[in-house]
Structures are given as C-alpha cells and as structure tokens.
Design a protein that fits this description.
five-stranded parallel sheet; alpha/beta; 23 helices; nine-stranded mixed sheet
Length: 690
C-alpha cells in the first residue's frame, strides 16, 4: 500500500511539473504599434477583390512576444529545428484577413549557411542577405546585438550576400543599421541590384546611400556589348561626373523597361517576356554546343563500327535531343520560372516508353545548372529518384532524406524528418529539383507517399520542385485519390510516340561524323520501328545490332578488306533476328488461350496505368475477349493454370502465392515483342495492334 501511495504521489508531482513547464514555455504574442504609413518598400494596406491574388493586410510597426517588444529592423534569434537558432532582421509585420500574425524575416547568414564557395570569415561574423522567409512571430526567441566590429561574444556584420548570384559586397553596418536604413529601398538597389518598387521613394536627391559602398553599374560600349566593373568605392555623400553618367544610363534603362511593360500586366509580362527569353537562351546554348563541338572525340583511335556501336547504345548521352524542342522549351520554361521566382511547383510528364521523357528532363536540368553557374538563375540541388530501383515504395523517403540531410534513416523516421524540414524556415534552405521517374510503381493502397510528394511543394518554406514521370497520361485520374491528384496541379506535359521521320532524325544526329550507315538503311529501320511502337530505344537497338552483324562479317574476311557500310539488307536481317528471339518464338507458337491471356494482360495494364495488375482483372478481360471473338471462355481456375504455364516459361511474373485472383502479375517481356509475335497470325493480328 505504501509503495502504491508513493507511486501515485510521484506521478502527481511529475504531472504538476509538466503542467508548470508547459505554462512556462507557452508563447504569448500581442501586437505593438500599428503602422499607419507604410514604409517606401512595403506595400500599403488596401482593399482588394477576391480574384486579384492579393490579401488585405494590417501592417504593424512592432510586436510583443512574451512581454518583449520587437520592432521592424531589429536583429533577433529565430527558432530552428536544431539547438542552434537562426539569425534574422525583422523586415515586415502584418495580420492577414484570417487574423493570423505573420512576419517576414531577412536572414543574417553565417558562412556555413551560404550556398557558395568557402568564404573566409570570423567565428561570429554574419552576412546581411536578401533571402527572406515568412515566419510566425512565436518563433522569435530573443533580441541579438549585431555590430560592425566588436569584441568576443558579439555578432559582427561587415558584408552583404546576394542570394541570386551569390555575390558578396562590402557593407558599413554602423551607418546603415545605426540610421535604421535597412528598410530603405535604395539600400536594396545598391546592395542587391533590386529594382525600386512602385511605392518606393524615387525622387530623392541623387546622392549615394550612406554606408553602402556603391557598385558601378553596367555601361553600354560603342559596339553594343555591356561591360561591368565589380570594383567598389566608398560613398562620401557627393557625386562625381562619372557617377552622374552611370545614374543617367540607369534612369534611361529603367524608363525604357517601363515603357515596354506599361501596357502589359505584370503577370502577363513575366510569362510572355521573361520566360521565352530564357528558353531561347537555353536553345541557343544547345545549338552552339552541337555545332561548335562536333562528336569526333569518340572516333579517334576507333574503327567506324566501334564508334557507331558506342554512339547507338541506349545509355550513351547525346549532345542534343532532336525532335523534342517544344517539350524541352515547355519544361525548361516552367522550371526556369519557378527557380527565378523561388517558388515551389509540381509537374507531371507522361508518355509511352522510349519517347525521351527522362532524357529531356535531364537535358533541361543540365542547361539550368549551366545557367546557375553563370549566375542567371539561383543555385539549386538536383535529386533523381527511380521507382524501378527501389525495393519498396517506402524507400522514397529514405533516398530523398539521404540526398537532403546526408544521413540514412528508417522510412518512418525519414518521413518525419522530411516533413519537419519542409515546414521549418531556414536561411540555408536550397531549392531542390526532385525528379521521380516510374511514378506508377510508387502507388500504394493508402497513397500516402504520393500525397506527401505532391503536398510538400505547397508548404510555404519548402522551395521544392517535383517533376513526376510516368508512362500513363491519365494516371492521376485512374489510380490516385482526388486529394492527391488535386495537389499534382495542372502542369502536365504529354510526350507522343515518335514518327518515322523523327526516328530518322534521332539516329542521324547520333551518327554525325560517322559514315557507317547508308541513308536508305536508316530510313528502313525508322519505318519498321515507327509502324510498331515508335520507341527510339528499339530503333537504336536495331541499328546497333546491324552494325554488329556487318562488323562480324568484316572481321572474318582477310586483312585489308574495305569496310562496307550498313545497308537495307543488314537492317532487315537485324529486325528478323530480333523477332526470332526465344521469347518471341515461344509467343508465336503458344496456344490460343495463352495468346489471349497475354493480350488481356497488356490491356489490363494499360487500363490500370501500372505495371502490376491483379489476376482477377486479367481474367475478366480474358473472358470478355473470348466472348467478343466467338471463342470458348475458360473458367477462372483454368485462367490461373494458363498464368502458371506462362510463369514457368518466364513470360509472366507472378507473386509467390496460391493460384488466387488477388495475386499480382506483370509481363516479363516487352509489349512490342507481343505485337511483333502476334502480328503474322491472322486471328490475333487485330488484337495485337489494338
């Protein structure tokens, strides 16, 4: 009894301490002074309509957190996901129409938080940046003291950091922060090269901003090119003749930009002016790389056949991707806009296998990386996930967190870490471009993985771009719940199968500088493959096999014999050889019910949009096909036996379980092989091509 009383007393004391700790750690937030007149760089409060995309905001000058008042421009410590808080400047304070208190923090970055090369800095040195994040006022921990030069234990700021181009500039913190000029739009224009907004003070005397070491702006030369001087000079309050000329050029340029964009709304100007310009620049880079750097390095030291086999391999990365210019421009435009505006987005790309989906996305990412290296777009991190390389769909969390956090974790723990990462503001947050290939293999019963992948980009601090690639165009409508497909958005791009003319262009582009093929041979290969599937990989395989056949015959001849080119006869031999593969021969000589089962299985897979389908769905389609073509419909038990026979011949892969309609089955051969094997059969030719 005494032990039970003691245990109850200890439990009661523990609950009391927990309650007291909760009360002590509870954050109280109250508004301070209201901002009657908005500062020059802050949009004023105004009434807006529902469809304008804006919100009614009540601006404030200060806020009280746990009894301490913080004003706009104060340096504070912000709560982070670790024990080490972030440092920031309070830039804006407002309350939206829903009554939510919000604050904009402009980060004071430490060297390890900057996405740039290693910078030499002191142990307590921070960099004033233009990187902003929307935070809750409850995340403010305490005020900090930032000085221009101080003793140990004080934060020191002597330089600024421009997030877009990773440029570091000198800054006189004592003059700028001491006179509370961090909110002045002219300071941003001098430090970070930002344009003055419509409400900013523009008609001020043409004097340099005190404390900001000015950067000489671009001046056009006589030949039309622009030059930029990166040197800095201290402002002494006066203005020389050279500075006046720079300011005049800057005013003329700003007036020209206004005249061009005055008649066009801001949103329309961004979509129809900036984006095509970026796309055209990327296309010019691709063209220059193709024309200026011909593929001759792989020919040196190799025979004509060896170079052709090397280039025609499906794993070889070509210098350019012909016949996908429109898809490339659309994908590049969406990604460039999201990176430029530092926003998150989702994109769904669909198309049958072999249409260049993954290759086009990789080419866009490669061009964006080059633009990021040149400082044209902000830096980003690229992560590629493939459903075929995962043992289970839950490995998506593990691989994604390993790429972001650099450590391995269990799927459940990795999902929690990713959720906390995308919900917490941080100055060290990079923009991540995540490509999820073979998306249909990540579909689960609960669809939690798909939901999280498409929901994380909608978080305010995510900075996440998800590009999903699948083989089925209407996969979101067929397999995904409405709450998942709605988060996927409307940015969808479909890749059509290649026509024979496009296949010819693809093969010829790979064989530039290598005279191993006759022109008619390439056309014959393109027409044969284009009539069946339009798969570019199949066309490359046929051409590569034809090269191997010709090379084998050439090496069997005496030394010194001329190297013949690949002709139409060689292409025809390669096609017949591929059609005479063991699995194609087995399908051609299979029983009628086995052929119907393979056709029914392909139809069920196309209808479901996934590679694995239940045996019951295949059996239902099998019986319907038999009734439509006046054939005897087998029972479900007999269909199970047919599935087992095809599984024993390795044409079908089935789950290791009893013959049941709920077991999952998938094809172990390509769909094109089924079409090729059944096309000569007059009975199944229509079924094979349908």
């Amino acid at each position: 009894m005494q032990q039970n009383k003691l245990a109850r007393r200890l439990s009661k004391a523990t609950k009391s301490r927990r309650k007291q700790h909760t009360e002590d750690t509870q954050v109280t937030v109250e508004w301070g002074q209201r901002l009657d007149t908005a500062p020059p760089s802050t949009p004023s409060t105004r009434r807006v309509t529902r469809h304008s995309g804006l919100t009614n905001k009540e601006l404030y000058k200060s806020i009280i957190v746990n009894g301490t008042e913080y004003s706009i421009g104060d340096a504070v410590a912000v709560k982070s996901s670790t024990d080490d808080p972030h440092l920031a400047i309070i830039y804006k304070l407002w309350q939206n129409e829903r009554g939510e208190r919000q604050a904009v923090a402009r980060w004071l970055m430490r060297p390890h938080e900057m996405h740039t090369k290693r910078v030499e800095a002191g142990p307590r040195e921070v960099f004033y940046s233009n990187a902003e994040d929307l935070i809750a006022p409850e995340m403010i921990l305490r005020a900090i003291r930032v000085v221009a030069s101080g003793e140990d234990g004080e934060w020191v700021c002597r330089r600024s950091f421009e997030e877009h181009s990773a440029r570091i500039s000198e800054l006189d913190w004592a003059s700028v922060y001491g006179k509370n000029m961090l909110l002045d739009a002219r300071v941003d224009a001098e430090l970070f090269g930002q344009k003055l907004e419509s409400g900013a003070v523009k008609k001020q005397p043409a004097k340099g901003v005190p404390g900001v070491k000015k950067r000489k702006h671009e001046v056009e030369s006589d030949d039309g090119e622009s030059t930029e001087d990166e040197s800095f000079m201290a402002s002494d309050g006066g203005e020389s003749a050279e500075e006046k000329s720079h300011r005049t050029v800057r005013k003329v340029r700003s007036s020209r930009v206004k005249e061009k964009t005055r008649a066009v709304p801001k949103r329309r100007a961004r979509l129809h002016d900036m984006q095509p310009q970026a796309v055209n620049t990327a296309m010019l880079k691709r063209a220059s790389r193709t024309t200026n750097t011909p593929q001759t390095d792989d020919i040196a030291g190799r025979t004509m056949y060896e170079a052709a086999r090397l280039r025609l391999h499906v794993s070889a990365v070509p210098a350019t991707l012909p016949c996908r210019e429109s898809e490339f421009a659309e994908i590049y435009g969406h990604l460039h806009t999201a990176l430029e505006e530092r926003t998150s987005m989702c994109m769904y790309i669909s198309g049958v296998p072999g249409t260049g989906k993954t290759a086009t996305v990789r080419e866009c990412v490669r061009m964006l990386r080059e633009s990021a290296d040149d400082g044209c777009v902000p830096a980003f991190e690229f992560i590629e996930l493939n459903g075929m390389k995962m043992t289970e769909p839950q490995q998506t969390y593990v691989q994604l967190w390993q790429a972001i956090g650099g450590e391995r974790a269990t799927p459940k723990h990795a999902a929690q870490l990713l959720d906390a990462h995308f919900n917490t503001p941080s100055p060290r947050r990079h923009t991540y471009v995540v490509v999820v290939d073979e998306l249909d293999l990540l579909v689960t019963k609960s669809q939690s993985i798909m939901y999280n992948l498409f929901d994380w980009p909608h978080r305010p601090h995510a900075k996440l771009i998800v590009v999903a690639i699948a083989n089925t165009m209407d996969l979101p409508e067929r397999m995904l719940h409405h709450k998942v497909s709605s988060r996927l958005g409307l940015t969808r791009i479909n890749f059509q199968p290649y026509a024979h003319a496009q296949l010819m262009a693809i093969v010829r582009a790979r064989l530039v500088g290598c005279a191993a093929f006759d022109a008619d041979a390439i056309e014959l290969c393109a027409r044969k493959v284009g009539a069946v599937s339009g798969d570019a990989r199949r066309a490359l395989d046929v051409c590569r096999r034809a090269v191997e056949i010709v090379e084998h015959e050439w090496r069997a001849q005496p030394t010194g014999h001329a190297m013949p080119m690949v002709t139409m006869m060689d292409i025809d031999r390669a096609v017949k050889e591929m059609q005479a593969a063991p699995h194609v021969t087995f399908i051609r000589n299979a029983s009628a019910q086995q052929k119907v089962f393979l056709v029914a299985m392909r139809a069920a897979m196309r209808k479901a949009g996934v590679a694995e389908v239940p045996l019951g769905d295949v059996a239902l389609v099998h019986r319907q096909l038999c009734l439509m073509h006046a054939m005897r419909a087998p029972s479900y038990e007999q269909i199970g036996v047919i599935c087992a026979q095809l599984g024993a011949s390795r044409c079908v892969l089935a789950e290791s379980s009893i013959l049941d309609v709920r077991q999952l089955v998938r094809l172990a051969v390509a769909e094109d092989d089924i079409t090729v094997a059944l096309k000569p059969d007059p009975v199944f030719s229509k079924l094979a091509t349908s």
